[in-house]
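Data follows
____________
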Amino acid sequence: MTSTTSMMCSEITEQPAALRETLAALLPLTPEIAALGRETRHVLFIARGSSDNAAVYGSYLLQVHCGRLTSLASPSVTTTYGAELDLSGVLAVAVSQSGRTEEIVETMRWAAGCGARTVAVTNGAGAPLAQEADLALVTRAGDELAVPATKTYTTQLAALAVLALGLGADRDRGQLAAVPDTLEASLDSPDGRIGEIVERLVGVHGAVVSGRGMAFSTALETALKLKEACYLRAMGLSYADLLHGPIAVVDGGTPAILVAADSGPTLPGMVELAERVVATGAAAYGIGGGPDLGAACDVAVPGPDLPEWLAPIGLAIPAQIITERLSRRLGYNPDSPRGLGKVTQTS
């Protein structure tokens, strides 16, 4: 069995401070972001792994609140196929915790060579990604020693929220500035239902994790974390994709973990999904979603009190805590999942 503490647990608790420092450093850069925004129309996100899940949040955020068409890059288009595209008018946003993943650096260089302007979102101030971008949004997460990303992930989300403000999102920056305090209060009063969900997940071999809209990014990240640290066969699926067939795999041995903000237009659909899952005899566990989702699920953990556009930053934390506790409960070391390193190189 592993010890009762882990680096991952410590780094989860460091997130309010990391977010506070990140926002203090990045919010003053919104005029520079705005300048790049005036030269571009579309946004191309370049990322892998947890950073790709952060990019999904950025994609929804910029489309809904900035009115900009976004897409997620396929790095193999350049690294494997060597294709050339016309990217004039495109803002390429490369997201990488380390800033040293060669595939991501190469793809950002390719985008610049095809006419794009570039932004790096990274925790590596001196990394190639930050040095070569037109503008670097360097997060202030500090050293992250556990392999599963926690504070580097949520500070990426904060950086993308700053990016949205710079690109014209009509959102209250005071709400963003208040996020660290909200999360600090949440971490100071952990919800006992987290332990109940952990115990219910002991013994299952698979789970479906679903979200919609802004919260879809957190569903994907939760599934990734459960695979990385708990070796659970977790599928991250959007609400719509889940209903188009894969819901058939949800049964007595395969619970659904449903992630939602406490408000917003996607919440009613997530509540209906929880009711449908429970009606089939399967278990539904909620993360966030307020009292409505809580009432529809077998067990639900409340998310921090944040508006929908910022909710994914807060929703990631109970998901991280569930993962860390379940990993240790299963006798694993959440800090060093087998077969994984902190920087993954692909070609």
Observations:
- The first strand starts at residue 42 and ends at 46.
- Strands lie at 42-46, 70-72, 90-96, 117-122, 135-138, 206-211, 233-238, 256-260, 284-288, 299-301.
- The chain has a mean pLDDT of 93.
